[in-house]
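assembly run, all chains below
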Amino acid sequence: MNLKKQNPIKKILSIKGMGGAITAFIGLVIIYVAFGIINPTVFSGQNIMNLLRSMSKYLLIGIGQSYLLITGNIDLSIGSVVAMSAMISATLMTQGVNPLIAILITLLCCLIVGVINGFLVGKCQLPPFIATMGTMFVARGVAYIVNGNRNTDAISSGIGKEAGESFQNFFYYGNTFGVYNTFWIAIILFVIFFFLLSKTRTGRHIYAIGSNVEAAKLSGVSVLATTTKAYLVSAFCSFVVGLILCAQAGMGNMEAGNVYEMYGVAAGVIGGVSPLGGTGILLGTLAGAAVWQTLENGLNMIGAQVGIQRLVIGIIVVVAVLLDVVVRSGTFKKKGSTKTAS
Amino acid sequence: MKKEMLRMERITYREQGIVRLDNFSMTILSGEIFGLVPVNHYGLETLLKLLKQNLPLHYGYVYYREKEVNSWKKPINTVNRISVIQNKSCLAEDLTVADNIFVLRGGFKKWLIRPSLLKKQLSPFLSEIGIEIDADAYVEALTAFQRFVVELLKAVIAGNQLIVLKDISTFISESELFKLHEIIRYYARRGISFLYIASHFEEARQICDRTALMVNGQITKCFSAEDTPPETFPLQSVEDYDKWVRTQFDRAEEEKGRHAIFEIKNLFYRNISNLNIRVSPGECLIVQDLDDSLFGDLIKLLEGEKPKGGEILIEGETYSRKKSRKIGIIQELPLETMIFPHMSYMDNLCFSMDHRLRKIWVSRGIRKSIMQEYEKLLGEEVFEKKISDLTRKEKYDLIYTRILLQKPGVVFCVQPFKGAEVDIRSHIWELLERFQNKGIAVVILAVNLADSLALADRLVRVKHGKVQEVYDKKEFIKLPVNTPWLYLYQEKYALEFQNEKE
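ok done. output:
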């Protein structure tokens, strides 16, 4: 059988979305080395550690957004859910609630937003842009209301210094095997969601909905259930990022997670996840998040202005999407010529 | 003597180095309805493209309204005022009928649009063909037939003298087709010419003044209306297909299961009103929609929507979304509607069997064994191909085998032969028979009976969402329509029918 003889490299490259992921990884190496040559501090161990920790937030946000992009949808409420998560958990902890219980309550609230998004898009057929824009404002509103329109006090003021530090160490400042816990959390979740997307029935349904929703329906796929699952993944990732931000600041900030939804889109599309749905792998999102963070970090290290940083990142996102559109439409394919008789 | 509307003279046209039209010649006279039966679809799309646009030719000349519009000597790349009407509507869905007909027209120069004036202008056009359509109605709210009429009127009002009609019998019902033929004849009498492209010779002959046969990008034969076809089925190039149909027809006499695997009882839902249908394992049932109102609603119900009244039973139990894998659905034009273009071949193939093999997406071994089992049937190479690189036949194989792996009790096929060329049609036939051989009931939802009839054990004709007539195989001879292979039933059952009558 032909498949037995197939070259393993060719086999890996034949995976849909792998091309985008590999391109992003190559881009990452080039960017990193280039910044390192300009400023060797980029290669320092501490910088790498910081880079991995900062990247973790974008990776988690990217995972959630990639799930939705693959289904052909989008989630604009991610940033607000991050803020909601940070504010609810911090408010509860400042009031002395056990961190574990606070986390569970926060998780429940975030998942409710995911369910609402799934229902509005999957059942009510609202355009995802509009539906999630609505929940974006609602979630941000909740983040404001939960502590009476002000940021919370330090969480240690409610649960005690020791518990507060444990919480902060677990999610942000602590490290395991020399790498910050934030990175480990992100990587564990990455592995779980990677498995879910590539090896399970739900994963196939997610791809199918993005690829051909009508065919998926005819094959017995519940669009509502699958869309809701994708929004739940997104809400869960936002919840975790919210906790990370809360741990980082040691308090709840109402403005936490601002425009994070766009960082998620950027991480996805830079890594080859198609904003038109149907293609992309989470490995690409990992590379996309790394590219994004390396750019931010590198431009910062070489002393580029914030405006320049935004400009460069914006251009890269547009080029990545342009590449996707070009590949899909086959514009680069050699056009055959129609010959006329001479 | 009639004027020439279109003359294509010895056209040879290449696309990406491949000859699509080879020494193609065709003449359509003014006011003529010219039939074209493509035995295979090779070159057909190119022909349509060349009719609309004067692209650089390898050799040949094109004359439209007796003027040379294209020549291999000096390519002009202009556009001809010829309309093509086919299943895919060219109308703007969110605009009104009047907007589509008058405003979206090259010659419309007015800055201010007055709907009442447009309505008035449209009214005589509608009344002369005896059709009532509200000028203010949105196109999306129109039926397929009304859309067709709007497209036709748009072409006529735009002053296009040649109108191409492609496979229209596949999307409008029999009675509507009859009405449409009258409209076409009316405009033909007024000097407008038509190129009527149909899958079957019998259909084209019902209306066309002349009918030509197109094979591999060439016209091989042309019959005028007066010509008597030399044999029962005159098209030599599809003789094999005809023979094959006969063989299949004789073979399909085996006993089918008697108990119902799928049943619809007193069903009410939108346009469906008290519908009753039952089908047994291995049986092939055709459900013919006489007024184009059934399929959309029925598919919605099969996707899991709840009916307003009545029930749907599968294997004796009430059908629900949870049991959706017990029913296979193959939509019309499946190459566009049933494939996941971004997924791999194996993912496409195994997509709807994960209810049977839960670990299929985790275990490579399972997928490998499926691959080994089906490589004889599907070919070894297909598993490595990209979906976009598959041939049409391979895509059909993929879709039908996917449903086979799903192991449903019944398969619903919406117009399975629509848009398929002859060799693909016979292949679809084989694929449908594969279902039957496995004991899976096949329900073909059809607008016209061409191709489906020879495979059918029973025919149910539905109008206004209700069963109007039921024909058993032996009663097909009584069918009030001219359809391909009806003569087979006439040959086989005429005597029996005669005796019964006496």
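The longest strand of chain B covers residues 4-15.

Chain B has two domains: 4-237, 242-501.

not gonna interpret more than that til we talk
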